[in-house]
Design goal:
Elements: H1 15-32, E1 34-38, H2 39-58, H3 61-70, H4 74-88, E2 97-102, E3 114-119, H5 126-139, H6 147-157, H7 163-210
Helix pairs in contact: 1-2, 2-3, 2-4, 3-4, 5-6, 5-7
Amino acid sequence: MAGGALKYRHLSRSSSHRQALLRNLVTSLFTHESIKTTWPKAKEAQRLAEKLITLGKKNTSATRRRAQQIFYQPLEHINNLFTTLRQRYLNRPGGYTRVLRIEPLNKHYDQAPSAILELVDGPKDMRFHMTAKTLVRERATEEGVRELTAKNVGKVTRYREGGMEELEKEVRRMEMRVADEGARERARWNVDERPREGWKKERLGRLRQKT
């Protein structure tokens, strides 16, 4: 109907090609837990991924048959969907995936808006890692943790199993990495300064001999 609301994005493809594209994107998402694609494709694939996880939470024979029709490699992903992911999102009412805008993937061509599509509360949850990184930086300051950061901590740990323990573990890991990088940087500068100091002493000795 002219002037009606857009129900879905056609993605400049036929119906069969569009469905094949989305099935491929969702299969890659459940394989790697995070994928990069264009913004419109990410938003459409997100809808299908959310439906799949809802099917996994119901865990009936009908939902298993429906999920097998969507995955390109059902034998590799059905067990993961109905066991690992079902347990991960059992208490979460919704919002199983997240779309994050990034710089265009094809900078030299069409500059199409790009995005990251990821499964939340997983090992590649970008917001979880960014929150841990922010905690490391703010805890090292005199002001301490800001109110906004405290709210983000609650968001990323609310439905995550052992959320606070996992976050603190990630914070400690990042703090150790920062300390190691600082030690290596100081050692590099000390090594660079030694030849300069020796060269300065040698030159000063030569000048004294001439005088």
